[in-house]
Amino acid sequence: MTLAWNKSGWRNKERIQMPDYIDDQALNAVETRLSSYPPLVFAGEARSLKTKLAAASRGEAFLLQGGDCAESFDEFNADMLRDTYKVMLQMAVVLTFGAKVPVVKIGRVAGQFAKPRSAATETVNGVELPSYRGDIINKLDFTEEARVPNPENMLRAYTQSAASLNLLRAFSQGGFADIHHVQEWNLGFANAAGSAQKYKDLAKRISDALDFMTAAGINSDSTDSLRTVNFYTSHEALLLEYEEALCRVDSTTNLPVAGSGHMIWIGDRTRQPDGAHVEFCRGVQNPIGLKCGPTISNDDLMRLIDKLNPENEEGRLTLIARFGAGNVGDHLPRLVNAVKAEGRNVLWTCDAMHGNTIKSSTGYKTRPFESVLREVQEFFAIHKAEGTVPGGVHFEMTGKDVTECTGGVRAVTDEDLSSRYHTACDPRLNASQALELAFLVSELLESRHALKQKAV
Q1: Per-residue pLDDT tens digits for 247-285
Q2: What's the CATH code of the domain at 46?
Q3: Residue 178 and residue 393 in contact, taking contact as beta carbons nearer than 8 Å
Q4: Cβ-count burial of 38 within 10 angstroms (0-12 exposed, 13-18 middle, 19+ buried)?
Q5: CB atoms near residue 47 (< 10 Å)
Q6: Same domain, yes or no: 167 and 194
Q7: How many domains does the chain have?
Q8: 300 CA to centre of own chain
Q9: Same domain, 259 and 402
Q10: What is the DSSP string of 333-368?
Q11: Are 404 and 421 in contact (CB under 8 A)?
Q12: DSSP character for 397?
């Protein structure tokens, strides 16, 4: 039975990783304005996503969730948005071919502005200032004025999110997402200098399949699903003043919905069972994600599942495992078995980014491509051993040609990192690395599909 809930109830709980605004009047004015604005997403879309995630939890679909570590006000433009969206489309086609099931596409976009930090302050040249917590809260510039939390930033985040959603919906429905265009882009990657032969072979098999469909009369003109896609948005629900202000009541069910994004998640640092973030998220009807790191206990996970999915609804709760390569075997089996023993409905996905951050020999924070891939491989191997479903992957990535993660087919080295290191927070996969990962994950999915076929 769900306990009584209201959208302001989180204010009576412990707040973690949230700013202390110095001007209550300005904060209240912003919250009032946001409360009067239209929601960014609609309840029916969130319900549709929940149905698709339920299918992924049963192995009848696969989740691809990806996008920026933290969205930026200054770097926002149509080309940046298009390039990341384009790579996600490319990845989805490759994953669909391997899995032989639909791929659910969710961006870390149109709301991913706030970031938890490991320390409340940072020191540069002997000067200590509050940490940068994302553009929705304060500025990256290392000045006292820039680091003061500004509630007005929430209005700019809302406006940018609305513009992003408008463009993404146009891309999704206007022909840009046509599978034949996407496959041409994939062929370009596969045939590029340095690409492995197996990538070329897989790309050719996909092209052959599309050619057969065209010959059979199934093409973009006759079949909408080859020309359009459903694309959903997500972000970490960290800044609860913003989330509450955009909470709405679904007119068809009379239940509360987070209007800030189709899916929201709770971070590994803010998942206290009695904390403010769990309190807010438990009451909205959207699909909810929960980051699970090495410190989560079996008991805490079960308490969180009880709070976030008391009705044991399929598609409601996605558990996003983030342990780091080499550590997955120490933690994922115990959590999977605890969930399985209690008969809880969850979707398991793999965040192979956050547990693999290291400091390079040149001083830059980075994530080795090989470690990211290894964590995904370990995730699949454990689900195979436990007889459970590896339901998706979660990547921090960009469509730009940045040099923030080492490795990949283009072999980015520690020395290369300084050439195009643009992230304001954590290192992201570039377009080539993200697509290469999709080809490699597709192999894992194809092997899993072959085993299922053998068992039939």
Answers
A1: 999 999 999 999 999 999 999 999 999 999 999 999 999
A2: 3.20.20.70
A3: no
A4: exposed
A5: 18
A6: no
A7: 2
A8: 23
A9: yes
A10: HHHHHHHHHTT---EEEEE-SGGG-EE-TTS-EE--
A11: yes
A12: B
Q: Are residues 208 and 246 in the same domain?
A: no
Instruction: Enumerate residues 6+ apart whose C-beta is below 8 A from 192.
Output: none
Angle at 37 between CA 33 and CA 43, to 5 degrees: 140
Q: Say how far apart CA 169 and CA 264 lie, in whole Å.
A: 19
Q: How confident is residue 193, by pLDDT bands cut at 50, 70 and 90?
A: low
How many Cβ atoms are within 10 Å of 322's Cβ, its own excluded? 24
* Token duo for residue 72: 């930026």
- The pTM assigned to this predicted structure is 0.96
For residue range 360-381, list pLDDT tens digits in order. Answer: 898 889 999 999 999 999 999 9
pLDDT tens-digit series, residues 68-78: 999 999 999 99
Residue 233 and residue 260 in contact, taking contact as beta carbons nearer than 8 Å: no
Of the residues 190, 206, 227, which one is the last residue of a structural domain?
227
Residue 205 lies in a domain: yes
Owner of token pair 């290369």 = 416
Q: Is 414 part of any domain?
A: yes
CA–CA distance, 49 with 44 (Å, rounded to integer): 9
